[in-house]
Amino acid sequence: MLDRLQSLADRYEKLSELLCDPDVANDSKKLRDYSKEQSDLQPAYEAYVEYKNVMEELEAAKTMQGEKMDDEMREMVKMEIDELSARQVVLEETIRILLLPKDPNDDKNVIIEIRGAAGGDEAALFASDLYRMYTRFADTQGWKVELMDVNMNDLGGFKEVIFMINGRGAYSKMKFESGAHRVQRIPTPSRGEGFIRRPRPWPSCQKRKKWILRFMTRIFVSIRSVPVEPAASPLIQPNRPCALHISRRVSWLLVRMANRRTPIKIKHCRYFVPVSLI
What we know:
The protein is α+β, with helices and mostly antiparallel strands. The protein is built from six helices and six strands, in the order H-H-H-H-E-H-E-E-H-E-E-E. Strand 2 and strand 3 form a beta hairpin. The chain is flat and about 75 Å long.
């Protein structure tokens, strides 16, 4: 592990030198690639530097422990050794995680859909609580939140809400939020039964590949999540709204009418699958 960390540290320092090179500064592609690579290596590099400092301090403290000293000083050295040993264990675990292979989608933006599912108005209210929870978490991470679509009930809850989170590492931290989120209220006004509400968030990374759409009388296009291949979907009849699907559970209405020939601004979805006409 230490050999691999040392090679990462050498590469990080080499990238720092390259970024100071005037030839690289004048080449926008190299500058962008080197900056991204260095940014990806920075967490492991900083953890490795701290780990080396901790090991040096720990070795010095153990050497000092063998010298003659009074009881108070010996107790202070022992406390320092305990603290450094605990920090060493934490850093080793952190470094192991940082050295794991990364998901290529981790640095992408994420589109999240939350639906109230079973539970009526209370499920919709809980869905709105989840939306606020995720947006506040995004604020703490320095991410930007963009509301894409929302369907509210009379009480201010969300039957359905779709929003995008823009920021580095957004998908890496949000991809595990998919599935049912359960809330239970006990007791009810009439009996002591538990009512369970299960809103369902579905995160998906934003696709980067661009497709050109041609609007015709019968066309079905869409988006539905990541990173799976699009599945064929049946065509819809004219004068009906079209939805976007790719394969999981994020849908975003882009084509308002199937037989409309006016251009529609496509901003959020980057991966479109036209289906042949009838």
